[in-house]
Each structure stands twice: as C-alpha cells, then as structure tokens.
Design goal:
alpha/beta; 6 helices
C-alpha cells in the first residue's frame, strides 16, 4: 500500500512540474543569467522557421546575462489582471524590451474608406498581432530601451509596405526615433544570415548596453554616502 501511495505521489509531482516546450521559467535558480529582466514581446510563431529565429534571439539575450520575460501562453510571467494592467506591470518591472512582429494574417485585398471618394484598394499585405502595437507604445512611454524587429516578405511586402503604410503603426517609417530591423525568413540559412549580419549585431549590442545602463540608473540609491 505504501508503494502505491509513493507512486501516486511521484506521478502527481511530475504532472505539476511538467512544463510546455519553449517555456521560459522565471523560477530558475538564481544565476548570473537572470540578473536583469527584459520584456520579450512577440506574435506567437506559427511557422517552424519563425520559432527558430525566436529561439535564437532568446539564446542571445540569455548569453548576455539578461532574463527574457513574456506574457501569454508558455509565458514566464502570469498576472490575474486585465491585459493592459498586465502589460503595465511587465513594463514597470523590466529594464528593456525586444519586440518581434512576425507575420500573422495575410490580406489579399482590403478597402480603405469604403464608399467614399477617397477610397482605396489595398492588396497583398501582412498583419501581425495588435499587441505588437500596444506593448511597444507603452514601453516607449515609460522610456524603456527598445529593439523592434519586423518580418518582411519580398513577394508581398510587409506590415508597413508602401501599399499599406496606414497599417504600419509603430513599425511605419519615422514612427519611432530609432531603426527598425527587418528580416525575411525563407530557410535556416536566412535565420543564420540575419543573426550574423552587422546591422543586427551592432543594434543588439547597443540595446544590451542601454539595458544595463537603465538597470544601473534605476537600482542606484537616491542618496550616496560615499564617493
């Protein structure tokens, strides 16, 4: 009877502690990897090639001794409040943000201002998650160091292609005071080429430096008693 009890207990513990794939745990042992929390905002990948890029970005964040935090399914953080309150809590407790706007919805045709004299037909463009507009805007208002990434499509353009500029939002040209890094995914080689490109490496290194500086500034005491 004791053996059965032990077996049930072991099974119960295993079920409770099981984590889904790609789960970013916030309860890992305290190590240098998880010193500085940053908000990793992204539209959920639906293609393996998108997941590969996301995994590689997470690896690089952790290699630089930062802790990527997420919301939603398979998330590191979960709050019981409404979405906007959860976003605010995450932003106020992070020292930087990376936003990855993956393709999510492909629109073959849409009508801008229907039944009006200035109506316009927009064709073949991509949309991403609406949260990829809200979260970066809130982080910018708070002053977090940001790095915005946007998936493009050489055949059909991107979320902010010339044919659909009005749909670009924060990813439209001149919307934010820093560069938006664009990437196109075709195969594993395209992921590798993006990550070894000087543009990514320089902007990522600069962002990491900004995050460290933000962390130092926000964790220094208001009054210093030594020189």
């Amino acid at each position: 009877m004791n053996n059965n009890l032990e077996a049930k207990t072991t099974l119960s513990k295993t079920s409770i502690t099981a984590k889904p794939d790609n789960y970013i745990s916030s309860n890992e042992p305290s190590t240098q990897l998880y010193t500085i929390p940053v908000f990793l905002s992204y539209s959920r990948p639906y293609m393996p090639i998108q997941q590969l890029l996301l995994d590689k970005i997470i690896e690089q964040i952790q290699e630089n001794l930062l802790f990527p935090r997420t919301l939603g399914r398979n998330a590191s953080d979960q709050y019981t409040e409404t979405n906007l309150v959860s976003f605010r809590r995450m932003i106020l407790s992070s020292y930087g943000m990376i936003s990855v706007a993956f393709h999510k919805v492909f629109v073959k045709e849409a009508i801008l201002n229907p039944d009006a004299k200035n109506s316009k037909i927009l064709t073949n463009f991509w949309l991403s998650s609406p949260y990829l507009q809200i979260e970066p805007a809130m982080a910018f208002q708070h002053g977090l160091p940001q790095l915005l990434l946007l998936e493009t499509d050489e055949e059909h353009g991107s979320i902010c292609s010339p044919s659909s500029n009005i749909l670009g939002g924060v990813y439209e040209a001149n919307s934010v005071p820093y560069s938006i890094l664009k990437f196109s995914l075709t195969d594993d080689t395209s992921v590798k080429n993006f990550l070894i490109n000087a543009v990514w490496r320089e902007n990522f290194a600069y962002w990491v430096g900004q995050v460290r500086n933000a962390y130092k500034m926000n964790t220094e005491p208001k009054f210093k008693y030594d020189c």
